[in-house]
Amino acid sequence: MAHAHLLAPLDLGFTSLRNRVIMGSMHTGLEDRFFHYGKLAAYFRERARGGVGMIVTGGISPNRRGWLLPFGGTLNSVLDLWNHRRVTRAVHEEGGKILLQILHAGRYGYQPFVVSASGKKSPISPFKPQPLSEAGIAATIADYVRCARLAQRAGYDGVEIMGSEGYLLSQFLCSHTNERQDRWGGAIENRMRLAVEVVQQTRAAVGPHFILMFRLSVLDLVDGGNTWDEIVTVARALEQAGVTIFNTGIGWHEARVPTIVTSVPRAAFRSLAGKLKQAVRVPVVASNRINMPDEAEDIIASGDADLVSMARPFLADAQWVEKAASGRVDEINTCIACNQACLDHTFANRRASCLVNPRAGHETELVYRPSSQSRRVAVVGAGPAGLSAATVAAECGHDVTLFDSSERIGGQFKLAMQIPGKEEFAQTLRYFARRLEVTGVKLQLGQRVTREQLLAQNFEHIVLATGIKPRKPAIDGVDHAKVLSYIDVLQGTVTPGPRVAIIGAGGIGFDVAEFLLHDRHQLQPETLSDWCAQWGVDLSVTQPGGLVKPVPAEPLRQIFLLQRKATRVGAGLGKTSGWVHRAVLQRNGVQMLAGADYQRIDDQGLHIVVKGESRLLEVDHIILCAGQEALTELMPDPSQAGTAGPKFHCIGGAALASELDAKRAIREGAVLASSW
Ligand code: NAP
Ligand code: SF4
Predict the structure, then answer these.
(1) Is the minimum distance from the CB of 310 to ligand 2 under 6 angstroms?
(2) CATH fold of 10-347, please?
(3) In Å, what is the CA distance from 545 to each residue of 253, 370, 537?
(4) 69-101: buried (b, 16+ CB within 10 Å) or exposed (e) per residue?
(5) Rounded to two decimals, what is the model's pTM?
(6) Which atom of ligand 1 is nearest to the CA of 416?
(7) Which residues, 6+ apart, have CB-to-CB distance to 296 below 8 Å?
(8) Which of 356, 423, 432, 576 to mutate to test the pocket of ligand 2 (most atoms within 8 A of CB)?
(9) Ligand 1, atom 2: nearest CA belongs to which residue?
(10) In this structure, which of 196, 250, 556, 574 has its CB flanked by the most CB atoms within 10 Å?
(11) Residue 643 neighbours by CB distance under 10 Å
(12) How far is residue 162's CA from residue 647's CA, in Å, rounded to a whole number?
């Protein structure tokens, strides 16, 4: 059997899991509102039906002080049981198991009543925490225990106690935040007391036949984080206290090392699960940047871990396990680790979803059901919007033809996947290519279709997903031989010289800067050791937090990245990934200039005025990344509106070039195609 180790059951003594695949905790926002629990149950039901062995809910606080956000989800009263039972029933009906994650945010709470080990404010919340008193600690432990008992009554198979990522228990575990002088601070034996007491008292309350998974940080990535010896000391004490399974956590949320974005090599931290497995007897879970079955299988088969946890990959594809089990790995809609619709939404207090699967978190609202009448549909443009519209329309039973002037599908994604660290975008195109075959979409590539040709074929719906063309800004000298389009650069048609200015510092300007920093043939695929050297990560964790001095590779070029706005360069990038892009450029000496007034381009280079001062950037090339304009040439003449004939629809970049965005494009295509 394919992926035999991954799909083998795991006997825990008092219960067993049907396979080694855990859907890890991901806050969706649905758990925070009692009226969303029907939607939450439907979301988990689909994943359990898709074969996941065990699911962990989003974080639920044991008390109000532990809220991540004001009025976040809690399970601290019998009044909450009814809703939680809807969730557990849905998962059990599909043969899965489910744990409630108990997460006390400590000083990461975005609310004024936060508490922590000490009064040290976190860099990611404006609120200064109150250090917990002795009585406060005792009450907090009692709240964990009450929450776990209520979880048991609600039908959960166990709880995951969140002890990593910098939340309350981590705040006690590490001297980075624990400055106490009493029996809860100082040596590791004191710092771990809270976590150990929570587990011990919870185990005593719930009895032996209830899963207690503890998410233990095995790499803190902050100064004053724990060393490997301390981590092992904590793990052994927790095992003794009654832990059934250890999940592994990587990096605090305030760490300045990325741990989950696309540029982190796949399965980068599996060796840490392997190290922990050697130190304890209970099963260990590997996590972070694992998204496809072959790696997951290898992690289990090699003995690095007993289970694999993935959260975002199950937003991207609820049938991940089923597809792996039936040899349909090429049909998996792979999580590309972009964070754009999941974590970026969570941090903006919006419901989490998925860029490549807009149904995630919207299972009851966006439904692809067979249409009562099959329609003849033309989709023009095989970028993300068109691919989504075509495949969903065909899935709903329509007769779909997809046109594109290029020989290959993908649109802007073909360019995005050239960027170092964005190789995963190729997976989305692999998925759509297969999905076109599976759903029977007729493909007409390599020809620019005209309106007359479309009208001659009696389509009932014509979807224009024709995308964009790059904007050519009105700058004196813009036609000079030094000026290049980002498309030529990313396609490799031209190779810019050693000094480059980039006009436009949006998503594409940043991408182009990263693309030009290093010789992509040298760095791709970036090895784990290269990545660790660049970010200063020591996977042996001999230094506190696993941090060492970074040794970045020498950049190939001197780059200027410019924008006209006076705001911080890169301010519009994604919340959870933008800082990574900025850090990479800063580390490589890219000069980011805001408030640039472009004067002219000539043989000398680019002439600009910044803060009233004239400057000449003596560069070999100037690359235009100045935004986009919509391609709408196929739109019918508005004077013909209302006349008989096909219905025209415009989606994606063609509809709104100024906010060209794959997340919106894919969602728009799916919403439109499922509405006929
Ligand atoms: P964008 O993000 O809107 O950025 C366009 C840039 O061009 C801005 O810096 C803008 O800054 C500048 N600009 C606009 N009009 C100009 C003009 N007439 N002359 C000179 N400069 C001008 O667009 P994009 O970079 O083309 O990216 C398109 C979309 O792709 C983004 O919306 C994003 O969703 C997506 N994307 C995101 C990422 C990411 O987050 N990492 C990466 C790639 C693509 P000033 O007006 O201040 O000069
Ligand atoms: Fe993965 Fe991006 Fe979807 Fe989040 S939005 S689940 S990171 S593909």
Answers:
(1) no
(2) TIM Barrel (3.20.20)
(3) 13, 52, 9
(4) beebbbbbeeebeebbbbbbebbbebebbbbbb
(5) 0.93
(6) 43
(7) 3, 6, 20, 21, 290, 308, 310, 324
(8) 356
(9) 506
(10) 250
(11) 8
(12) 52
Instruction: Please tell me the class of the 472-521+553-626 domain.
Output: alpha beta
Instruction: Report residue 351: phi and psi, to 5°.
Output: -65, 135
22 forms bridges with which residues in the sheet? 54, 309
Q: Is 421 in the pocket of ligand 1 (CB under 6 A)?
A: no
Using alpha carbons only, what angle is made at residue 350 by residues 346 and 353, rounded to the nearest 5 degrees?
75
Q: Which residues does the annotation mark as catalytic?
A: 167
Q: How confident is the model at residue 501 (pLDDT cuts 50, 70, 90)?
A: very high
User: Residue 276 contacts by C-beta under 8 Å, 6 or more apart in sequence?
Assistant: 216, 218, 231, 232, 235, 246, 248, 284
Question: 223 and 191 in contact (C-beta within 8 Å)?
Answer: no
Q: What is the pLDDT of residues 91-137, one digit of tens each?
A: 999 999 999 999 999 999 999 999 999 999 999 899 999 999 999 99
- Nearest-angstrom CA–CA distance, 517 and 589: 10
Does the CA dihedral 149-154-158-160 come out positive or negative?
negative
Question: For the structural domain made of 376-469+629-673, what CATH number should be given?
Answer: 3.40.50.720
Instruction: Tell me which ligand sits closest to the C-alpha of residue 506.
Output: 1
Q: Which ligand is nearest to the CA of 289?
A: 2
d(CA 38, CA 43): 9
What mean pLDDT value characterizes the chain? Answer: 94
Q: How far apart are CA 511 and CA 585, in angstroms?
A: 10
Tens-place pLDDT, residues 585-614: 999 999 999 999 999 999 999 999 999 999
pLDDT digits (tens, 9 = 90+) for 232-256: 999 999 999 999 999 999 999 999 9
Decide: 340 in ligand 2 pocket, CB within 6 A.
yes
CA distance 531 to 544: 19
Does ligand 1 lie within 6 Å of residue 628's CB atom?
A: yes
Nearest-ligand number for the alpha carbon of 261:
2
The finding on whether 420 has its CB within 6 A of some atom of ligand 1 is no
Tokens of 226: 């724990």
Domain boundaries, the chain: 10-347, 376-469+629-673, 472-521+553-626
Residue type, position 102, single letter: I
| Residue 145 beta carbon below 6 angstroms from any ligand 2 atom | no
Q: How many residues does the chain have?
A: 676
